Give the backbone structure.
Amino acid sequence: MTGSHAALDRLAGALFRVVLAAAVLFLVIPVVVSVFLSFDDRAFIGPFPPKSFSLRWYASFFENPAYLDGLFNSLKVATLSTLISTAAGAAAAYALAEGRFPGRDALETAFLSPKFVPTVVVGFSMLGFASAIGVFDAFTRLIMGHVIITIPFTVRATLAALVGIRRSMVEAAISLGAPPWRAFLDVTLPLARTGVVAGALMAFVLSFDEVAVSLFLSDAFTQTLPIALVAEMRANLNLTVAALSTMFAAATILIVLLLDRAVGLDRVVGQGMYRG
Amino acid sequence: MTRPLAKPRISLFHAALLAPGVLIVLVLFVAPIALMALESFRPFVTGKVGSGSGWTLRNYAELMEPAYAFYFWETFRIGFIVSATALLLGAPLAFLAARTRRHRLRVAIFGLLIGLLFMSLIARLYAIQMTWGSNGPLAFFGTLIGVPARSAPYAAIQVALGLLHFVLPMVALMLVGTFQNINPRLEEAAASLGAPRWRVALTVTLPLAVPGLLSATMIALAMCISSFVVPLILGRGIVLFATNLMYVRFSDVANYPSGAAIGIIMLGLAALIVYAMMRLTRALAGAGAPS
C-alpha cells in the first residue's frame, strides 16, 4: 500500500515538474529565439539558428524615419498621458482612500471600469466622440484615449499603497494643527510615493505599447511606434522588429531590476498590485 | 463632538481632489460610450461617413446572422481553450512561487512573470511568430499534430499560442495570491496524518484554491475575448475576433453604426463576465474557505 502511494507521489511530482518546465519554456523560448534572430546577418528571414551575426537590423531600425517618428510620438503621448492620469488618478485615489461619503464605492468602481472595457471599444467610441465635438487633431485624440485607458491603473496602484498607511499618522498631523492639505503633502504623499510611481510606470508602459486605441485615433501623419510596427509586421516580415524587441526586452529587464531594488518584487506581488 | 448619526458628507477638499478624475471619466469614457450606444441604433447609409438619421435595430439583427455570429463563437471557443490551458500551466509555477522556501527562486519566478507583463506585447507576439511560425524552430509542432505551419487552420493555433503567452503571466501571478492565502498548516496537518502528497494536493489544496482558480480563469477569458492585437498580428487575416470585426466594419466599409453595435455587444459581454466573476467569488467565499 505504502509502496503504491510512494509511486503515485513520484508520478505526481514528475508531472508537476513536467508542466512547470513546459510553462517556463513556453514563456522563455520565443524571447530567446527573437533575441538570437535580431543579430542575424542574413538579409532575409532564414531558418533558425542564424549562421553569422551582425548588428545590421539595429542599424536598419535607426535608419528608418517611420520608426524614429513613431518612437518620438510614442514617447510624447506616453509621457503626457501618464502625467495627466497619474496626477488625476493619484488625487482621486487619495480622496477615495480617506473619504467616507455617500457614493464612494460607486465612484471607485467608475474609476476602475475603463479597465474592463475592451480597448477597441474605447478607441472606436473615442473616435466618434472626438469628431462629434470637433477634435480632429490626432495628437489630442491619442492623449484623450491613452488617459482613459491608463487612469484605472494609476487609481488602483495609489489606492493599494494608501490602504497601508495608517490613518492615525494623518490624524496625528491634523490634531497637531496641520491643515488637511498640509498633512497630505507632508505625511501621505511621501508614504504613497511607491504606489504613485508604480501606477505611473504601469501607465507609461501601457500607453507606450497600446495598439487598438492608437489604431483608431492616429492618422497618417501622427503614428505611434506600435502602429508603425504592426503595419511593418503585416506588410513584410523582417528582422528590424526583432532588433526592436530585443531592445524592449533589455528595457524590461532594467525596469524589473529597478522595481526589485526600489520596492522588492516580493512586495509587488505580495501587495496584490495585480490582484482585484 | 459631532452628532453621532450625522450623515457623512464629502468635504470640499476631497471633492476638489476627485474633480479632475471624475471629469476625465465622464468626458472621456461615459460620453463617448453613450454616443456609441446611440450610434448603434442609427441606420447605415452606404457611402456616407458617419450614420443616417432615424432609428433602427438592423445593426444588431445583422450580427445574429450565422456569418457574423461565427466570429463571436470563434472568439469564445479560442478564449476558453486558452484560459483553461493557462490555468493548467500557471498553477504549478504559482504553487512553487508561493510555497518555496528559497527566496532566490521566488524572486526569479516573480521577475520572469512581471518582466513579461511589462514587456511589449507586440515584441512578444513577434517572438511567437518567429518561433512557432513556418520558419521557426518549433514549427514542427504543427506537423506533429497534423496541422502544418503553412496551412490555414494553423492560424488559429498561432493565435491561441499568442493569447496563452499574453495571459499566462497574469494568471500565474493571480494564482500566487490564491495559493499564498491557503494556510500551509492545513496541508501539513493532512500530511502528518499520513496522507500522501498527491492526495493532499488533490483533497486539501485544490478544493481551497477553487475560488482563486475560477476568478483567474474568468480574467483570462475576459483578456482573451477582448484582445485585438493578438488576432491582428498572428491571425493572418484568417482568424478574426469580434474586436477585429469591429475594426474591419469601420476601416474597410466605413460602417460606423455596425461597429458601434458590435462595441455595445462586446461591452455587454465584458460586463457579464465581471458580474459572473463577482457573484461566483462571493458565493464561494460565503461557503466558507478558511484563510
About this structure: The two ends of chain B are 39 Å apart (CA to CA). Chain B touches chain A through 98 residues (CB under 8 Å). Residues 58-286 of chain B form a domain with the MetI-like fold fold (CATH 1.10.3720.10). Chain B is about 75% helix and 0% strand.
